[in-house]
Amino acid sequence: MAAVIAFILFGIGILGLVLRRDLVIKLLALGLVNSATILFLVSIGDRPGARAPIQLPGDVAILADPLPHALVLSAIVVNFAILALALVFVMILVERYHTTDSTRIEQEMVRETDEEEKPCS
Amino acid sequence: MRKDRIRIIAAIGIVLVFAGLVSVMHLGSAPDPSASTRFLARDLEETGASNRVAGVYLNYRLFDTLLEVLVFSVAVLGVRHYLQQSEGMELPDLSESEVVRTAVIFLTPLALLLCAFFAILGHISPGGGFAGGVIAASGLLYVAIAYGMRAMEKRLNPARLVRAEEAILLALLAFVLLPMVFGRTPLSDLMPKGTPGQLLSGGSILVYNILIALKVLVGAWAVIAAFAQHRGEL
How many separate domains does chain B show? Predict the structure, then answer.
């Protein structure tokens, strides 16, 4: 069940990432994709009746698989790094073009390069 | 619009490809539960950490974790480098009302205490260096919200703190390579395994957790300070 929810969230995130034009919303969608991945990894590690993988010797409870949990840790840190850097790039773009709309930024960039090339030709 | 249609098709394609991958993973090879049971039975005596996740990511997968710490450092450096190119703004000396200040006096020591708890007991109970560092950095953010960013920057200069972060990273790498001095493989445990559940157990995981917590605390604070300096009004 958790895997299905993770997959639906992943789909929403990818659709938002590709279809929405606002850069900040694109970043939010990227965060959603990351959360869906984390949910999927946690659901892989689950087993019926499993507990969190913290155990003392002599304790015989069924434990969840700790390996996907360790991968989640990497995913969270890398997502933090990506989000921080991407936000900086969005800030630089907004400072220069005064919009967060990716299509308009592209148009502005094309216009700028055209203006630079004109005197040469 | 033709471009929009191509985008929609591309997005649906990506989602479908991932759906196919996931279903192949689920249908093609059902994970063998006995393998993970055997692995779980062994790793407690191999790592000595009763928090199995800490045992995996700071013992078996230590190399991976080191590179992850490096990714964090690169992000901190990148944020500061690119933000320095844009113009900084004059920080207004804002500070919040008495209610917020009183709440912060209560919350910040709690956050710092939780950081210490997560870092020191990360190998026995839920927690770990990364979580602890981020909690402590948000504790510092509370103080910055209540007393103003400028007052905070006088005490904790972010530019100097980035140096401290690099020093902690170097210390971490040195500690990882230290077993070579004693003629053992690098990345292997230097400290005794101990009894699982005791404070001094799990080999070097305790030292790694404390170093990582310090590094993440300093790095996250440097990122927060850089963002506040160049855009927000804290």
Answer: 1
